[in-house]
Write a structure and sequence with these properties.
409 residues, mainly alpha, Serine Threonine Protein Phosphatase 5, Tetratricopeptide repeat, 15 helices, TPR-like_helical_dom_sf, MalT-like TPR region domain-containing protein
Length: 409
């Protein structure tokens, strides 16, 4: 006969009221969890746009219009709320710095779109250049509000590059000098290398071959150092050196640096992503002086890592293996590579109307049908003059324009 003892039922330590309270969420708790989930989802989308934008801009082959659109979407996600009743942290230094960073790289992509176009003087090219200037102006203003010196310098150097394109050499030099001064003070070697690339192109435009070589060799030295070790930068430096040696009719050195550029350019940005996950060479989120949301930085790094894994796993051309990961970031890249051939006029129309690249009727089918093979502060006056330049006024107009396609960004 089974003995029945009093009060032998299992006791979980909770009374009925406590169970009801924990089992059912209150309206406030449910709303809080929903808001948290929505914020996390928005952060993931933002990180995806930043990762795709940076890879499409700096990867090989670049897809400038798609990069611009990804940075534009990312910017919309960080814009302050228009509802005065809702709290906003859009004025925090980190948020301002992020917006500045996105404007900067969007402006870089706009300029590169013009450089890659058949004509840099067409109506569409002029409009695109205007957009590029506006993007850098916004980047500078936001960086100043955030008191972020490194982002101020990046905006300044790119403005200088646009001024170089316009053959406004004195102003271009001033902007590059300001950027270099900050890079040296901040000990930002990656930024310093980029500025020297610009100074080299400026010297070449002024037919100062000796100084051009000096600047590009300095760029190469910095990018080859253990501290920086940036393959994308090495490819840029070798390419620029080959251009200078071609102007000097030094065929041997031209060919040498062209080969070095090709070797370094082989999956250069993919390599930098893998080897520099925690620096500005592999993740643009490390370029500001301000600390951007660590969760966002980590998500961008994860997306970039997914790009590397996705491209490494790509089947060879002609393979019957299908990619079933329709939502993967690598699938998105494939779609945008397939539609990479866009007229400049169509690109401007897309940017002006917000039309997606994939739906443009003006798109020409690109010859590229498969992705690349897998991976085997300005608030103070700066009076410094760089090396051989004694003054901005000493720069003279070249006898004929030298069309230098800068490899700096």
């Amino acid at each position: 006969m089974e003995a029945v003892l009093p009060e032998t039922g299992l006791d979980d330590g909770l009374d009925d009221d406590e169970e009801d309270t924990n089992f059912f969420l209150t309206e406030l708790e449910a709303a809080a969890r929903a808001a948290s989930a929505a914020a996390a989802a928005k952060l993931r989308v933002l990180a995806r746009h930043i990762a795709l934008g940076s890879f499409l801009l700096y990867g090989n082959p670049p897809v400038f219009v798609a990069a611009i659109q990804h940075f534009t979407k990312a910017l919309k996600a960080v814009q302050p709320s228009q509802d005065p009743e809702l709290p906003t942290n859009s004025e925090s230094p980190a948020r301002l710095a992020l917006a500045s960073l996105l404007h900067h790289h969007r402006g870089v992509a706009l300029r590169e779109l013009v450089v890659a176009s058949a004509s840099t003087t067409s109506k569409a090219a002029v409009a695109c250049t205007k957009h590029a200037f506006e993007a850098q102006r916004h980047a500078l203003e936001l960086a100043q509000r955030a008191q972020d010196l490194r982002l101020q310098a990046r905006a300044a150097k790119t403005m200088g590059l646009l001024l170089l394109d316009a053959q406004a050499y004195a102003s271009a030099l001033t902007h590059q000098q300001e950027a270099l001064q900050i890079a040296l003070e901040e000990k930002d070697r990656e930024l310093e290398a980029r500025v020297y690339a610009n100074l080299g192109n400026l010297a070449l435009a002024q037919v100062n071959f000796g100084h051009a070589l000096s600047c590009h060799h300095r760029d190469l030295h910095l990018c080859s150092s253990k501290v920086l070790d940036c393959r994308l930068g090495r490819a840029r430096a070798h390419r620029n050196l080959s251009i200078v040696y071609a102007k000097l009719h030094r065929r041997d050195l031209q060919v040498k640096h062209e080969k070095e550029a090709r070797d370094a350019d082989q999956n250069a940005y993919l390599n930098d992503i893998v080897t520099h996950q925690g620096t500005s060479a592999g993740n643009i989120c490390f370029q500001p002086s301000s600390d951007i949301d660590p969760a966002l930085v980590d998500l961008v790094a994860q997306n970039l890592a997914e790009i590397v894994r996705g491209l490494s796993a790509q089947p060879t051309p002609g393979s019957t293996v299908e990619n079933n990961e329709d939502d993967s970031i690598s699938s998105a890249l494939e779609d945008e590579w397939r539609t990479a051939g866009v007229d400049l006029e169509a690109a401007i129309a897309a940017l002006s109307t917000g039309t997606q690249v994939e739906t443009l009727t003006q798109i020409r089918e690109s010859r590229l049908t498969s992705p690349p093979k897998s991976l085997t502060a300005l608030s103070r006056h700066v009076s410094i003059r760089i090396n051989n330049y004694s003054s901005a006024g000493s720069l003279t107009q070249p006898e004929e324009p030298l069309h230098v396609q800068s490899q700096e960004t």
